[in-house]
């Protein structure tokens, strides 16, 4: 069962924030590869390479959805503003990947039939992350953020 779609991030104490990184992604489908590389490099720097497979799959799905549904089709392949942006944030016990895009439309979980090649992205996000959601941007900013949260493994002493 999918999580409720409209949901802000669970409260996290600001004092628990340890690292964050972000990158701007060009409005081209090659951005998925860029996002995966950025994710690999960031997780290695944070000494979390064991999370790469699950986090990269989720990042790939979220970025693909932004490219496919959040950008006007005629602008994919141009230098469209505002761009899609990937944020990775690490707290002491959690990792969040968030993709910001210019669309104000809610993400919609598809119901793909068995032969469909697409329509399962948010089901994968739901399966591979601990929780996920989205929220509209506030103030003068337009668009939304779709995020997925991963609990970090505890250190073994």
Task: Please characterize this protein's 3D structure.
Helix content is 27%, strand content 25%. A hairpin with a 2-residue loop joins strand 2 and strand 3 (94-101). The chain has one domain: Histidine kinase-like ATPase, C-terminal domain (Heat Shock Protein 90, 2-Layer Sandwich). By secondary structure, it is an alpha+beta fold. It has a 5-stranded antiparallel β-sheet with strand order 1-2-3-5-4, covered by helices on one side. It is globular, with a radius of gyration of 15 Å.
State the main characteristics.
single chain, alpha+beta, Heat Shock Protein 90, 3 helices, 25% strand, disordered N terminus
Helix content class: 25-40%
Question: What do we call the CATH topology?
Answer: Heat Shock Protein 90
Count of extended strands: 5
Shape field: globular
Q: What is the H-and-E element order?
A: EHHEEHEE
SSE layout and pairing:
Blueprint: E1 17-25, H1 31-45, H2 52-70, E2 84-91, E3 94-101, H3 121-128, E4 131-136, E5 144-151
Antiparallel strand pairs: 1-2, 2-3, 3-5, 4-5
Helix pairs in contact: 1-2, 2-3
Gist of the model:
The chain is of the alpha+beta class and about 160 residues long. Helix content is about 25%, strand content about 25%.
């Amino acid at each position: 069962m999918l999580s409720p779609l409209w949901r802000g991030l669970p409260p996290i104490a600001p004092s628990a924030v340890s690292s964050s990184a972000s990158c701007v992604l060009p409005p081209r489908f090659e951005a998925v590869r860029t996002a995966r590389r950025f994710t690999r490099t960031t997780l290695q720097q944070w000494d979390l390479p064991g999370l790469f497979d699950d986090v990269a799959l989720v990042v790939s799905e979220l970025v693909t959805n932004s490219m496919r549904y959040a950008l006007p089709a005629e602008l994919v392949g141009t230098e469209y503003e505002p761009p899609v942006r990937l944020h990775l944030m690490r707290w002491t016990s959690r990792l969040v990947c968030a993709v910001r895009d210019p669309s104000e439309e809610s993400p919609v979980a598809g119901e793909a039939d068995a032969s469909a090649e697409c329509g399962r992205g948010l089901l994968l996000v739901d399966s591979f992350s601990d929780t996920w959601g989205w929220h509209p941007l506030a103030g003068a900013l337009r668009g939304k953020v779709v995020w997925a949260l991963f609990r970090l493994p505890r250190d073994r002493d």
